[in-house]
Amino acid sequence: MAKLTGATIMARALKEQGVEYMFGIVGFPVQPIARAAQLAGIKYYGCRNEQSASYAAGAVGYMTGRPGAALVVSGPGVVHGLAGLSNAKENCWPMILIGGASSVKQNGMGAFQEERQVMIASPFCKFAHAVEHVYRIPFYVEMAVRNSIYGRPGACYLDMPDDIILGEAEEETVHFPAKCAEPPRMTAPEESIQAALNALESAKNPLIIVGKGMAWSRAEDEVRAFIERTQVPFLASPMGKGVLDDNHPLSVGAARSHALQEADVIVLMGARLNWIMHFGLPPRFNKNVRIVQLDISPEAISQNVPAEVALVGDGKAIVGQMNKALETRQWFYPKDTPWHKAIAEKSAANAKQIQVMIDDDSAPTNYYRAFRDISPWIPENAIIIGEGANTMDIGRTQMPNHGPRERLDAGSYGTMGIGMGFVLAAAAVHPDRPIISVSGDSAIGFSGMEMETVCRFKMPVKIIVLNNGGIGGGVAALPDNPLDALPGHLTVAARYDKMMEAFGGKGFFVTDPKDLKAALDAAMAHPGPALVNVQLHHAAGRKPQQFGWHTS
Ligand code: ADP
Ligand code: MG
Fold first, then answer.
1. Domain 359-535 belongs to what architecture?
2. Phi, psi (deg, nearest 5) at residue 162
3. With 501 labelled, which of 5, 71, 354, 519 sits at a CA distance of 20 to 30 A?
4. CA of 445 to the centre of ligand 2 (A)
């Protein structure tokens, strides 16, 4: 009778459950799992920091619909992996963190890197468990995969002690459960569908908010059909961008604040009224706003603002139901209403406000002038990754998305440092598409060492660093005594491009915007990874905002 090791069983179970990508760092005791995963046909990406590996696993889950795996060593490895676990939880993205653990037989003895790993992972997880018998590994893997993608997607944790990884079981004693099916698509009762449409029809200033829950549920066709059929203006959330093309005529992206403040009925589709949406409360929202809320998670309904109509279930299925129900209605939101006009006027005023910065060719450059060259250079089918404070916020408005699940950023948890992990994930999932990351200089610092990883895996990713020499604002020159610098100040004009060169990629350093376009084109023409380091004026900033970014 053939014997299988725990590592082999784990790899086979993951593969059979549709887990195709694993990111990790090997060491005690997980090395055999990584190797077995490779032999089972799982693509394994060895990273330089567990944070990036775990961020990558979550992003893979979001992009593919099946959880990505992150493999980390015991103790400190698991602690670092919590970064991605918490990020996945907050973003509602499926991933599985697999933590090596000290041997069961040494529990409580002060073993090497012994840690209460299931306990520390649990607050971030839908399902977290230690594997206690070799033959039960496939059971736990199926549990983790199913929990990660059914209902609101999220993170799961599996604890793999050394003696389970190295332990053996007779093949016949190991039951591999059938592959967990795609998540069921729950629909809403017909009366709720009718109530939602009635509410929308009664609106003076209707608005649809499209969140990343719709991207996750692959509802792009249904959402586009709904919006084009009803002619109701829509606002995409930061990662809901691309479910419909940002250049769609019904997008209110360029008049976001105005649209949120003045809307009287909002159909919230797969988005939460959390800090990103200013809690749905005044002064950012109309105090009498009526909410129709579509979400897969019943507990999410009426968070912060009571929902007038709740549509609980799958986004794709329910918007499909609404489209069907519209077949028997004549109603659509008329063109040329004062609402359309006000949004158009506000968009034009906002565009005018930033035009001076776009046109400013002085060196070092500002954000908007930099995006003047960056945005048209980005290929239509690119995956765009953004991180950093101003870099991400301004980038979100200046770099349009054209398709769903094509934008990855700091997300619901506001995580800085996701950039290179997401770059890895995007390049792994979409080897045939351009991967563009636009990062602040502070943000790239969290995960910059993964430049070695993208070079090693020959990923032809293009990374832009908008470098103002600081967290938030920078400074023209650092004081002689570094202790006199403000806490956010970083090296002025640091050469992140040389880091990329150090690992075999191509680097470009741009100090005058007149040279930016040529550098971008050369980076794109380079067949491997490239980094364009753009020096910004230390005081460059956002256009004046009506509200501080954190105004509730
Ligand atoms: P955004 O950041 O784009 O505003 P959030 O992460 O705040 O989006 O919200 C996404 C919402 O989508 C979550 O409340 C989640 O429960 C919901 N969701 C997840 N999957 C689905 C689905 N298949 N159908 C509908 N809603 C979903
Ligand atoms: Mg900076």
1. 3-Layer(aba) Sandwich (3.40)
2. -55, -45
3. 71
4. 10
